[in-house]
């Protein structure tokens, strides 16, 4: 499946870095970045390869055959990029959100708008099923953005479950794994676990994540094969529904204290820039926000017309 050159694998690492970077931000999913950068279907098919047949291949043909079966070079490059981001880019993103949050959200908003239009445009035939899936995806993602975060138990079984659900964002555009963790009450808990190297918690969370993403990849892969138009409509709906979370102007309804004593937003509501100006007395920065959002949309539209070396357009699933 993977016939890339060294340069091609370097580009995969960069895509993985982008996926890792956005996955630590409650609002954008790695699956969205996979769709934007054109590796979504390959990612799904590669993860699906982790099944019972893999063990038979490993037993009968050896490690190299098994590595080829799971598209190991592709996965290794993407995962390596994700890990680089987690280690090196988290502080940069934290700084950007601390000092330029509105502009960062605006750019992400534009990226998602462009992605939803692009993926929706690849639906070859609209039907009642496709429209239904679009509505279901939109409402599901929107509900997640307004749901009240819970306080989950610290038991290992719940850590496993949290990992299983959160890791699905790697293959589920529009729904952020970090935001799912926040809803489950485990975002800060896992950040602290990683910071303090609590290996048991990290291991259980990771095992749950691997199990969840493999199971969900099989579901998405089956849907793409059996109902491609409806599945693309569902993925577009997830992105459309998530736009509420990415809206640049917010009103904080409730706050909470972190373990370090810092007060951070707990519940937020999207408001108009004029309401924001009246509430805060600050310039809502409509022009730069709009320009950054349009830049995000433009990035997707430009990408849609990029040609591969053999003259074919880059295709999504």
Distance between the termini: 15 Å
Shape: globular
DSSP strand tally: 2
What share of the residues lie within helices?
55-70%
Q: Please state the structural category.
A: mainly alpha
Mean pLDDT: 80
Main sheet summary = 2 strands, antiparallel
What is the radius of gyration?
A: 20 Å
Instruction: Please give the count of helices.
Output: 15
Multimeric status of the protein: single chain
Q: What percentage of amino acids are in beta strands?
A: 5-15%
**Overall number of domains:** 1
- Largest beta sheet: what is the strand line-up? 1-2
Explained architecture:
The protein is mainly α and 317 residues long. It has one domain. Helices cover 69% and strands 5% of the residues. It has 15 helices and 2 strands. The chain has a two-stranded antiparallel sheet with strand order 1-2. Strand 1 and strand 2 (263-270) form a beta hairpin. Helix 8 (128-146) packs parallel to helix 13 (228-246). The protein is globular and about 70 Å long. The model is unreliable at 307-317 (pLDDT under 50).
In short:
This protein has helices at 6-23, 30-36, 40-48, 52-61, 63-69, 72-88, 90-121, 128-146, 156-166, 177-183, 187-195, 199-226, 228-246, 273-280, 286-304, and strands spanning 250-257, 263-270. The chain is mainly alpha-helical and 317 residues long. The chain has one domain.
